[in-house]
Specification:
about 375 residues, TIM Barrel, Arc Repressor Mutant, subunit A, 2 domains, nine-stranded mixed β-sheet, three-stranded antiparallel β-sheet, 15 strands, binds iron/sulfur cluster
Length: about 375
């Protein structure tokens, strides 16, 4: 296991659309949680790879609410239990409002070399409606501050499909983001779970979302615009300059083993075991304290499930699936069995083959769920 995700479930305030496991917490609660993370890491010492970790991703929540000393404590423990490879990618997700030059310099000195900022939109009225604590100018300031602190690998997240969001506003957000000195942009379509404030408002008819057609147009515009702006797409929702594709997230799509530590974190271990941790903090902490894996869900995948994952996960990536390697591993019969569905997907212009690589077309990217459903 060479890829580590660490969930930090703390936020200053809950955003109106968010169903991630996150909450405000006192310093004592945060420190107690860090101790649980370290204990959980210790339970997985046996899963370490001889070559050490290649990536660590601090996600959340708002991991930038942890002090540099907290992050150092965690990194020391991870180095002890898993070892570090020579050239690592270590990402910290941050809210643009929570980062100062001093903080970022301290964080950078810990060899954290990738910063992922939750920008979301460049219109203050959208940020306010979303319940975000930052303003649009904070995004620009955070990027400039991060550069000054020595970060040259920076991502900004953007969201489309927001209530009353217009195409012109989405275009403005993309243009302003792509002009920043950053390396990576992630775009997310708003999806609402009924457990969120906005999800409840939607059910009660108090919230109007853009039509599906407008959402699709926004996604397509992002794909075309960002390519021209020097951020080619490498995954359904991710765009990067040069060699700055996120190594950590790419490992998920290449179906590498990864370990997720913390509340509600998922893992893929031993190639066939998918687990999800408890999302209740007391249950999580008490299981870890008893030296028990804090799993709420555990599934041993069948060979058929593994094969399906190996087919559809790489399709998310621009490089697609190496059909020859897949056929060598599983036999050409697999494609023969799926021939009927595949022909329909080719005829509908959703799939294509280029130099032996099976890929989604742009239309296939927009309808990737339909492609997936047809293939498995
Ligand atoms: S900052 Fe992120 S994780 Fe925290 S509440 Fe907002 S959307 Fe959720």
């Amino acid at each position: 296991m060479r890829f580590l995700y660490v969930h930090i479930p703390f936020c200053v305030e809950k955003c109106n659309y968010c169903d991630f496991v996150s909450d405000s917490a006192s310093l004592e609660q945060r420190e107690a949680y860090l101790q649980s993370l370290i204990k959980e890491a210790a339970l997985h010492q046996g899963d370490k790879s001889e070559e050490g970790l290649l990536t660590i991703y601090f996600g959340g929540g708002t991991p930038s609410l942890l002090s540099a000393a907290h992050l150092e404590l965690l990194l020391d423990a991870f180095q002890k239990y898993f070892g570090f490879a020579k050239r690592m990618e270590i990402t910290l997700e941050a809210n643009p409002e929570t980062v100062s030059l001093r903080y970022l310099r301290n964080v950078r000195s810990l060899d954290i070399n990738r910063l992922s900022l939750g920008g979301q939109a460049f219109q203050d009225h959208h940020l306010k409606a979303m319940g975000r604590i930052h303003k649009s100018e904070d995004i620009t300031t955070a990027v400039e501050t991060a550069r000054e602190a020595g970060f040259d690998n920076i991502n900004v997240d953007l969201m489309y499909g927001l209530p009353r969001q217009t195409m012109a506003e989405w275009q403005e957000s993309l243009e302003r983001t792509s002009r920043l000195p950053i390396t990576h942009i992630s775009t997310y379509g708003l999806k609402l779970s009924p457990s969120t404030l906005w999800g409840k408002w939607l059910e009660e008819g108090k919230l109007t979302l853009p039509e599906d057609d407008l959402n699709a147009d926004m996604q397509l515009y992002a794909m075309e615009y960002l390519e021209k702006a020097g951020f080619p797409r490498y995954e359904i929702a991710n765009f990067a300059k040069g060699s700055y594709a996120c190594r950590h997230n790419t490992a998920y799509w290449l179906r590498k083993d990864y370990l997720g530590l913390g509340l509600n974190a998922s893992s893929l271990l031993y190639g066939n075991l998918r687990t999800k941790n408890e999302k209740d903090i007391d249950r999580y902490r008490s299981k870890v304290a008893g030296r028990e894996y804090p799993w709420a869900e555990k599934e041993v995948l069948t060979e058929e499930q593994i094969r399906e994952e190996e087919l559809f996960l790489p399709l998310r990536l621009i490089w697609g699936l190496d059909t020859a390697a897949f056929a060598e591993k599983y036999g050409i019969e697999y494609f023969t069995q799926k021939k009927g569905q595949m022909v329909k997907l080719f005829d509908a212009g959703l799939l294509t083959v280029e130099e032996g690589q099976l890929k989604l077309t742009d239309k296939g990217v927009l309808l990737n769920n339909e492609v997936l459903a047809a293939l498995i």
